[in-house]
Amino acid sequence: MYMFRLTWSLMEFVYTIAMKIPSHKPKIGVSACLLGENVRYDGGHFRDKWVSNHLAPHVDFHPVCPEMMMGLGSPREILRVIVDNDSGETSLIETKSKIDHTQSINEASKKILSSMPELDGFILARKSPSCGVITAKHYNSKTGYADGKGAGLFAAQVLDSNFNFPTIDSGLLFETEYKDLFVKQVYAHFELRKLVAKTSEIQRFHSEYKYLLMEHHPALVKELGKLASKSDDEEKQKQDYMKSFMETIKNHRPTKKKRVNVYQHLLGYFKKDLSAKEKENLLEKMEAYRQHKISYQTLLEVMDFLIDGHLDDRAKVYLKHQKLFKPYPEDLSPYKF
Ligand code: SF4
């Protein structure tokens, strides 16, 4: 059980200690209610089983509850995001008393974000007027009706801060593909954060992520390769590479077309090793994937099997190190549940 504390001084003390203890796990900011803390407006929680049971052993969580940090207790009155029709500005208003908490949540958000350690990702509770990333109901200031959805006020500040790490609405964790993408992004960010600022290390990282990157944006693989080449200022090189790498994998999602393209490249490694029958079989699998008859996971497993059985050692070591095949610990694979 994660003990949640309400005072700033204690929270800052905990984070100061956390920053000093070397950790070998990714650091994730998380809405405290998703971990089972009774901090919601109704006095309850919003425990997410995957976050609490499956992800928890692999990461260091940094729980926050912006509304508790603002000094509101639990239980408390329901809050709403009100969108001004003319300016488009959002406010956080109590439904009955109409008390405006906008300034308070904005100040609390700034304080939370500046006191946290360097994170590798953020998971925020769906539908909340503070934490929802894309699922907070937006109420029209003129009609009083909810006519849209978007970010809650804390989530908006996380997004506006332009962090390199990924931020996800817990509602998207129900979809396997989003969950897989999020965990990939978290682990890539974690590895980049730990990377020694040396050109040779950046090049090694780039080489290992080559085919995973190609699934996101084939043309940008070369651009990133240029950033990974020689530099006089290796610290700046690392920061520039990290920013561009994370933008690439966050802004460009893999598609079937891009994935088939990657497999055609990988097929090139097997030119001399496969019989005509084996090659035909692999091409059939790629076509089956294209036609939604087999999953992407099956295609990955077929390729992994071929690498084990057919390549000479040098090529095999290179391909086996490709993050495409193992971007994060196997236990975390959403395809297993
Ligand atoms: S959604 Fe956010 S503000 Fe609401 S209870 Fe959970 S952590 Fe607190």
Structure description:
With 337 residues, the chain is an alpha/beta fold. The chain folds into three domains: 8-174, no CATH class; 178-251, no CATH class; 256-336, no CATH class. It is built from 14 helices and eight strands. It has helices at 8-20, 49-55, 66-69, 102-115, 153-160, 176-194, 199-208, 210-216, 218-228, 234-251, 256-267, 276-290, 296-310, 313-320, and strands at residues 27-31, 60-64, 79-83, 90-94, 121-124, 136-140, 146-150, 167-169. Strands 2-1-5-8 form a four-stranded parallel β-sheet. Helix 2 (49-55) links the parallel strand 1 (27-31) and strand 2 (60-64). Helix 6 (176-194) runs antiparallel to helix 10 (234-251), helix 8 runs antiparallel to helix 11 (256-267) and helix 11 packs antiparallel against helix 12. The chain is elongated, with a radius of gyration of 23 Å. The model is unreliable at 1-6 (pLDDT under 50). It binds iron/sulfur cluster. Residues 31-33, 39-40, 46, 65-67, 125, 128, 130-131 line the site of iron/sulfur cluster.
Overall average residue pLDDT = 92
Q: Report the C-alpha radius of gyration, rounded.
A: 23 Å
Helix/strand order, N-terminal first: HEHEHEEHEEEHEHHHHHHHHH
Strand content: 5-15%
Strand order of the largest sheet: 2-1-5-8
Q: Output the structural class.
A: alpha/beta
Helix proportion: 40-55%
Morphology call: elongated
Q: Strand count, sense and closure of the main sheet?
A: 4 strands, parallel
Ligand catalogue: iron/sulfur cluster
Number of strands: 8
Number of domains: 3
Output the number of helix runs: 14
First CA to last CA: what distance?
23 Å
Uncertain stretches: 1-6
